[in-house]
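Quick one: structure for this chain?
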Amino acid sequence: MELRRYLSLLKKWGWLILLLTGLAAAGSYFYSQTIPPTYRSSAVLLVGQEQQSVNPTPSDIYISNNLAQAYALLVNQPSVLQAAAKELAWEGSWESLYFVVSANAPQGGQTINVTATSNNPQRAQAIANEIARQVILQSPISKQQAAADKQRDFLTEQQTLTQSQIVLAQQQLANLSQQAALETDPERLDELTTRISGLQSKIESWQRTYLSMGTLLNSSAGKFLTVIAPAPVPSSPVSPNIPQNILFAALAGLVLAFGVVLLLEYLDDTIKNSEDVQRVLKLTTLGGIARIHPIRKPEDALITIKHPRSPTAEEYRTLRTNLRYAGIENPGGALLVTSANPGEGKTTTAANLAIAIAQSGKRVVLVEADMRRPSLHRLFNLKGDKGLSTLFLEDAPLLEEVLQPTDVEGLSLLSAGEQPPNPAEMLESKRMTNLLNTLREQSDMVVLDSPPLLVVTDANILASRCSGAILVVDSGRTRTEAARRVTEALTRSQVKILGIVLNRMSGRRGGYYNNYYYYSSSKKFYGANLNGKPNGNGNTNGRGTTEKPTKQDVA
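Got it. Here's what it folds into:
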């Protein structure tokens, strides 16, 4: 049940969810277009040079990592930022560099990533490289590092020179060895042997020196800072990330939309469907009536006459059938049709229901009991100057003189007449009780259109004199508290509440009420016409004459 309710909410508010999600995504897209692009570039510093060692010890790596964490803190120090701002000819104050540079040292590593952001890619590269250079210059061991670098440069130069000497001496040694192998003169052979021996000694000495310098270079690798990856020129901006912004905005819009829907549903305490009727009022839903449109004239509301084969007219006939099972159509029955507030469709419901009952061959009297704002007679295009109030005059006419026949065979209308000064007293009088008894004796069904029950007390007075009452609820408009108060008032009047009529139901709320009516649009409707005289095809119009069905009739 809960899943079905959530699916119903999704179907009902899907347009709002899509609208808010789309607006959020579109807003994010257009806003992202106005954001200046931001570029990011990073330079990588190495703490120490253990990577050149064949077997660095864990202690060396641990020390280098700790130093990397400490050196990373130098990036945002005033001395580094001031020096970098001076070298870069920074437009603003040096403090503003604090917001465009950052550094981090990965845990367990020996590197420091110096990152800079700017609206210009070349500017981002220059800032990152300059900050990295200033960190090296501002480090506590910068002087030792400079001296060590000079020493390393010297050793490297000497090692290269020694390597060249060794290569040249080995070539000379090879030439002398070839000459000695071919020499036959003993004196010349002794001389070559002496030169070979001396050259071998030099080569061995140079090799020992070369190895010593290599060992010294490796051992002199201190915990210094070195740029191993200068900052490149970024090829694309890192911000704004338009696809990501749109995605996040759409998700935020979706969450907001669901929140709005839940809030609207929480604040909406109206009765919308039969489930709400059962849950709130614990009553039966007798029928669901779709909204009648268009209504350009009052008589357009009589859908059972204007378009007798429409689904809405069929819904009124279904309501008539459901009332039959409730026992209200017993001879002499009196049915009260009321609502909680004005404008909820009770008059239209009473009129169309009375027509549907009369079309089944019953004698029906429709009483315009709303004497404060009568409108029922206008639906039938009848006069309203004489009616119920006229029967309370001293020189009152006979009931037969006041009852007005309608175009529907078997249906008579007792209009309200002129508005009296005391409607409640008139309805509560003994004469009204006698009048209702007379109407019951002369008809099969009396249908009373009463005023809204929460507005005046007239409906309560009439309810106590009726066999049963139905409450018309405007779907999606009548509040649960109002409907609950009406049912409580009718219960106190000791009238049988036959059920609820859900009026002006849309397709979303109509549910199963509308689903099985559409077959009638492709089949002939056989039945009595409004004058009780079926034509050859069984089709009649509202005046008892034959007409071909129109598209609107079967809509």
